[in-house]
Design goal:
By secondary structure, this protein is α/β, with parallel strands linked by helices. The chain is 26% helix and 23% strand. The protein has one domain (2-283): 4-Layer Sandwich (Metallo-beta-lactamase, Chain A), CATH 3.60.15.
Length: 299
């Protein structure tokens, strides 16, 4: 067990050195990140912060990101499936809806929101999924019938495939989200992946929440950040080293949190949580206005 923990810590050290080097490189192409909100989940604090303020209501946002790299676009996560805005109970099941009650409008679906940037799903170069849970990979069906590659860590697909084969949903993996998987261009990666080959956009494994969870490093024109996805729900998880309420492996989750905390203490790289209502209330999300061709798109 001790050897395994040391191995995992060494892996994070290697990733840290790689990202630190990437953050210091000169940038040759403009990179912009656009953060979108796919609705909220009405839940309770103990599901975000393990054994903390049990029973206290907590309304959490559902972010996904569009990244512009020169003329190319990629996405990180997709938010909920459109069916959640129509009738979530039969789609997600009663138990999930009672624990995480979704509040989502039809126009918060991924493919509708990216119209604000003048995009449609087939325009994207690639999509990267932090993991396969309902509020992150819910709208992958938006890419059915396209050639757009959807990247998961191999360890995540190794978790998802047996669930689909058994036709029995697992925790927050929803069968309907993957109903059109045969029409999708699913790709698997293992470890750190430099998206454009210039170290400006990098995905890297942060297992713990799920076996194949991954996070995102971006060196944008406005600064460098790491979007943790569900490796860090809230800033409080990191600051107080509180594990998540829902996790495949709590010790691995704490290793990720410790690494994010170290990075935040070093400065220079902003650490961004996924479901922190306080953080997102202060930061806000990106474009509010639908894109009109020929008209400058304002916030």
């Amino acid at each position: 067990m001790r050897k395994e923990m040391l191995r995992k810590m060494m892996c994070f050290l290697v990733v840290s050195v790689f990202l630190l080097a990437a953050s210091g490189l000169a940038q040759a192409v403009e990179v912009k990140a656009h953060f979108f909100n796919g609705g909220i989940l009405k839940t309770q604090t103990q599901y975000m912060l393990k054994d903390t303020r049990i029973g206290t209501p907590m309304d959490i946002p559902i972010p996904f990101i569009l990244i512009q790299h020169g003329k190319d676009w990629v996405a990180f996560d997709t938010g909920n499936n459109a069916q959640v805005a129509v009738d979530p109970m039969p789609y997600w099941t009663k138990n999930i809806v009672e624990a995480y009650t979704p509040v989502m409008k039809p126009d918060q679906e991924f493919k509708i929101q990216i119209k604000k940037l003048g995009l449609k799903p087939s325009d994207l170069k690639a999509v990267f999924l932090s993991h396969g849970h309902l509020d992150h990979a819910g709208a992958i069906d938006n890419f059915a019938g396209t050639d757009v590659p959807l990247y998961f860590q191999k360890a995540e697909m190794d978790t998802i495939r047996p669930i689909l084969a058994a036709k029995k949903a697992g925790t927050a993996y929803i069968l309907g989200d993957f109903a059109r998987i045969n029409e999708l261009n699913i790709k698997e990666i293992t470890g750190v992946y430099d998206v454009f080959g210039d170290k400006t956009v990098i995905v890297f494994p942060t297992p713990g929440h799920t076996p194949g969870h991954m996070s995102l490093f971006v060196k944008s024109s406005k600064g460098t950040f790491i979007y943790c996805a569900d490796a860090m729900y809230t800033i409080e998880n990191m600051d107080k080293m509180i594990g998540p309420g829902l996790a495949w492996d709590i010790p691995q989750s704490l290793i990720s949190l410790g690494w994010f905390k170290l990075e935040s203490m070093q400065g220079g790289v902003k650490i961004i949580p996924s479901h922190d209502p306080v953080y997102w209330d202060k930061k806000g999300f990106s474009e509010k206005k639908v894109f009109v061709p020929g008209e400058r798109n304002r916030r």
